[in-house]
TrEMBL record:
EC number annotated for this UniProt entry: 2.4.2.22
Oligomer and partners: Homodimer.
UniProt xrefs under CDD domains: PRTases_typeI
Protein name, per record: Xanthine phosphoribosyltransferase
InterPro entries found in the cross-reference section: PRTase-like, PRTase_dom, Pur/Pyrimidine_PRTase, Xanthine_PRibTrfase
Listed GO biological process terms: purine ribonucleoside salvage; xanthine metabolic process; XMP salvage
Length: 191
């Protein structure tokens, strides 16, 4: 998605060879117009897939997901991060190791908001090693719902998550694919 790539080039900061900071439009401040374009692009790619629900994870997946949900006319559910490990029978739960925070969270989704008849689009802001997406997919499977695919705003294709998901036959649609990061420089796939 050209507009997103331009925004990353203008405002993204490669903090290291692994981490891209996009706090000015996605992870702290949010650019609503860009989010709307992102939502419409996800909707365009999944328009014929019979999506009934979008599943994301708090907090940075929420903005692009809401815009996609608006464009597709479906509700958006966000998995919540829960510190307590106590089991609750009304929730699906999965463990997710956070790449940026280097900690493991238990994420939960109420059974009321994801059901077996759902066709689910999983959306997240970044795809790195795939832990967040796999945790969400685990929850879709626990609900016995159908996974339509995974929509990612920024995939870092030099990390293993995208390949791992695609090898499992999962459809992954990334709006921008970053092939390499060096301090101060972002290289997109195909450049
Ligand atoms: P994964 O679970 O695929 O390893 O990492 C994805 C999660 O880590 C995303 O939900 C995102 O919040 C965070 N993340 C991973 N890499 C980056 C990055 O380069 N920049 C930012 N801002 N977040 C990242």
């Amino acid at each position: 998605m050209q507009l997103l790539k331009e925004k990353i080039r203008q405002e993204g900061k490669a903090l290291s060879s692994e981490i891209l900071k996009v706090d000015s439009f996605l992870n702290h401040q949010i650019d609503p117009e860009l989010m709307q374009e992102i939502g419409q692009e996800f909707a365009r790619r999944f328009t014929n897939d019979g999506i009934t629900r979008i599943l994301t994870i708090e907090s940075s997946g929420i903005a692009p997901s809401v815009m996609a949900g608006l464009a597709l006319g479906v509700p958006v559910v966000f998995a919540r991060k829960r510190k307590s490990l106590t089991l609750q029978e009304d929730f699906y739960e999965a463990k997710v190791h956070s790449f940026t925070k280097q900690q493991t969270n238990t994420i939960v989704v109420s059974k009321a908001h994801l059901v077996a008849t759902d066709k689910v689009l999983v959306i997240d802001d970044f795809l790195a090693n795939g832990q967040a997406a796999e945790g969400l997919i685990d929850i879709v499977q626990q609900a016995e719902a159908t996974l339509a695919g995974v929509g990612i705003v920024i995939e870092k294709s030099f990390q293993e998550g995208g390949d791992r998901l695609r090898r499992k036959g999962i459809r992954v649609e990334s709006l921008a694919s970053v092939a390499a990061l060096a301090e101060g420089k972002v290289t997109f796939a195909g450049e």
